[in-house]
Amino acid sequence: MDTLTLILFILGLVFLVAGAEALVRGAAKLASTFGVSPLVIGLTVVAFGTSAPELAVSVRSALAGATGANIAIGNVVGSNIANVLLILGLAALVAPLTVSQQLIRRDVPIMIGVSILLYVFGLDGNLSRLEGSVLFAMVLAYTSYAIRTSRQESAAIQAEYTAEFGQPKNNILKDLMLIVLGLVLLVLGSQWLVDGAVVIAHTLGVSDLVIGLTVVAIGTSLPEIATSMVASFRGETDIAVGNVVGSNIFNILCVLGLSAIVAPDGVQVAAAAIAFDIPVMIAVALFCLPVFFTGYLISRWESVLFLSYYVAYTAWLLLNSAQHEHLALFSDVMLQFVIPLTVFMLAIVTLRQFTHPLITK
Predict the structure, then answer these.
(1) Is residue 175 a part of any domain in this protein?
(2) Is 32 within 8 Å of 165 (Cβ atoms)?
(3) Which SS3 state, helix, strand or coil, does residue 269 take?
(4) Is residue 163 part of a domain?
(5) Is residue 177 domain-resident?
(6) Which end of the chain is more exposed for a tag (fewer CB within 10 A), N or C?
(7) Which long-range contacts (CB under 8 A, 24 or more apart) does 43-46 make?
(8) In the chain, how many domains are there?
(9) Among 45-54, 149-158, 206-215, 262-271, which range has the highest average pLDDT?
């Protein structure tokens, strides 16, 4: 690693932290200004903004043809997996995250639904321009609905935001500038880290799909990681969780939708993604329901569970890429012991929630 790469790497980390702080601060204040809940700001403004790297990488990759399409699909699918397992895991490790009931009733089911829709669209090996147009139309409808319903909140809730943040009407421009500055720093910082990582991965002979699922996915998720962790540290749990769920919805509907629209022949969907990675993404989305539902809280032990599964998923990708001799043993242990034990444990905890429901906000 040369000196310039090292300098850019360090600056990238600094930009990520500074950008996340500016974005969360500006977004929280903007929410109170317009009477929109911090959750909806997290689901829309923050989520869409922190997904800008995924949008740039995937559209650019889709225009590059079949090879780039593997990175485009891998980037989105890998980012969605990382958003839940890695980002929520890290954020909840900083502080347990309170989960809004609205997320469980509406937004998580939407995340699950669009994940399944992507699988259905990709079964023929191609995400066509028509299918991309359908996805993009859905993100416009989702965003419009989320903002409209949020503005219909009761006056009491809006008064609560005003009491917490004051009357920031004269600071709208400042808040917008903070958001824009935060997004610029996040995009620059993540891009510098991703560029170096991709070069290293190619040098080591890692395939384009695996690079998209791991290196590029984690790299383009760095804005979400930084934003959710800073939001968690500042107590803005609605922004932290909403950022992840909103980013996952945006990645599928907008990032892949636009990628399929601009690519000459749509986006090719690798057979390996249909056979393994997209089903994993769907399973992770489904995994959110019982975790979020139990106490409407992501606890520290659940954060460790998320992180452990992300490590296991990444390990499987690397073992499979290298066709390692221990791949079969690793797969058997996960499928026959670890995953069934986790499902059983979550089923017990969920049953307890039904029989002894907690009083939530």
Answers:
(1) no
(2) yes
(3) coil
(4) no
(5) no
(6) C
(7) 43/107, 43/146, 43/242, 43/243, 43/245, 43/246, 43/249, 44/143, 44/146, 44/147, 44/246, 45/179, 46/227, 46/239, 46/242, 46/243, 46/246
(8) 1
(9) 262-271
Distance CA 150, CA 40 (A): 7
**DSSP 3-state assignment of 293?**
helix
The C-alpha atoms of residue 221 and residue 119 are separated, in whole angstroms, by 21
What's the pLDDT tens digit per position in 135-176?
Answer: 999 999 998 888 777 666 544 455 554 554 455 455 778 878
Band the pLDDT of 2: cuts 50, 70, 90: low
| Residue 261 amino acid letter | I
What DSSP letter does each residue of 278-290 carry, written as one string?
Answer: HHHHHHHHHHHHH
Q: What is the mean pLDDT of residues 74-90?
A: 87
Residue 117's CATH number: 1.20.1420.30
Q: How far, in Å, CA of 225 to CA of 193, rounded?
A: 14
49's enclosing H/E stretch is: helix 47-50
Q: Which of 152, 42, 50 is nearest to 107 (CA)?
A: 42
Q: Helix and strand tally (H, E) in the chain? A: 21, 4
Question: Where does the chain show beta strands of DSSP type E?
Answer: 97-98, 126-127, 267-268, 297-298
Cα(230)–Cα(81) distance, rounded to whole angstroms? 20
Q: Which domain holds residue 328?
A: 39-151+194-355
Cα-Cα-Cα-Cα torsion 247, 248, 254, 255, nearest 10 degrees, comes to: 90
Q: Is residue 119 part of a domain?
A: yes
- pTM (predicted TM-score): 0.76
**Can you give the pLDDT at residue 359?**
45
Distances (CA, A) of 123 to 116, 133, 134, 181, 289: 11, 17, 16, 40, 25
Residue 44 has φ and ψ, to the nearest 5°, of -115, -80
Q: Is the pLDDT of residue 329 over 70?
A: yes
Give CA–CA dist 16/159, Å, rounded: 33
**Are residues 247 and 50 in contact, defined by beta-carbon separation less than 8 angstroms?**
yes
Length of the chain: 361
Highest mean pLDDT of the ranges 69-73, 240-244, 327-331, 338-342: 240-244
